[in-house]
Amino acid sequence: DGGITQSPKYLFRKEGQNVTLSCEQNLNHDAMYWYRQDPGQGLRLIYYSQIVNDFQKGDIAEGYSVSREKKESFPLTVTSAQKNPTAFYLCASSILGEYKSTEAFFGQGTRLTVV
Amino acid sequence: AQKITQTQPGMFVQEKEAVTLDCTYDTSDQSYGLFWYKQPSSGEMIFLIYQGSYDEQNATEGRYSLNFQKARKSANLVISASQLGDSAMYFCAMRIFGNEKLTFGTGTRLTIIP
């Protein structure tokens, strides 16, 4: 079945450590996105990518980094520079370039906790 | 810059009544799409309905309809005959075609009362 897989579901990190969240899709989508969601809050865009080897900063990119070496994969690294990384992280993907109902498909999320 | 505003942090609605969730947006682009998503307590994001900026008719999907008023830059979601299973967070989102940036509002927590 096609879809988006995020791993792990739960992640614990010590302060000062970098950690990488995985996002893989087999939907052949060009666009991929990373969002952060704090409790009871909306989704804030961290990074997005339209094509392999290219990505753009979203609204809250500081303290995060991404790569897009393959169409299927868009990993997110939460660096030690991110002051408050505890949150729910959602990855999404969609087709692009056409004016139609190209809704984004989401993974199940990764809940990151700094201990 | 694009922006989505949802001014209702929470709503309580009696079961079987209709409910309108507000969404206003701001963009200078002409070609864009508006989306509504539902997020139950499990955290998954469920796509509900889409409206394109050039679409002349309001979108409908089952019990969901989108009241699109382009001049006012509003895209309100209407849920008819609400059910207990409609209790969730609801997010409005906008995507600019061309740069593909997908931006979400802060959401509305809808609670259906039996």
Q: How are the secondary structure elements laid out?
A:
The complex is a heterodimer of chains A (115) and B (114).
Chain A: E1 4-7, E2 10-13, E3 19-25, E4 31-37, E5 43-51, E6 54-57, E7 64-66, E8 76-78, E9 87-94, E10 105-106, E11 110-114
Parallel strand pairs in A: 2-11
Antiparallel strand pairs in A: 1-3, 3-8, 4-5, 4-9, 5-6, 7-8, 9-10, 9-11
Chain B: E1 3-5, E2 10-14, E3 19-21, E4 24-26, E5 32-39, E6 46-52, E7 60-61, E8 64-69, E9 74-79, E10 88-96, E11 102-104, E12 108-113
Strand content of chain B: over 45%
Please state the overall shape of chain A, judged from the principal axes of the Cα atoms: globular
User: Taking Cα atoms only, what radius of gyration of chain B do you get, to the nearest Å?
Assistant: 14 Å
Question: What is the average of the pLDDT values of chain B?
Answer: 94
Low-pLDDT runs of 5+ residues of chain B are none
| H/E element sequence of chain A | EEEEEEEEEEE
Main β sheet profile of chain B: 6 strands, mixed
Oligomeric state of this protein: heterodimer
The tally of strands of chain B reads 12
Helical proportion of chain B, percent range: under 10%
Average pLDDT taken over every residue of chain A: 92
Number of strands of chain A: 11
Count helical runs of chain B.
0
Written as H for each helix and E for each strand, in order along the chain, the element string of chain B is EEEEEEEEEEEE
- Tell me the overall shape of chain B: globular
What is the end-to-end distance of chain B? 41 Å
Q: Largest interface, with Cβ-Cβ < 8 Å?
A: A-B, 31 and 25 residues
Helix/strand structural class of chain B:
mainly beta
Strand content of chain A: over 45%
What percentage of residues of chain A falls in helices of 4 or more residues?
A: under 10%
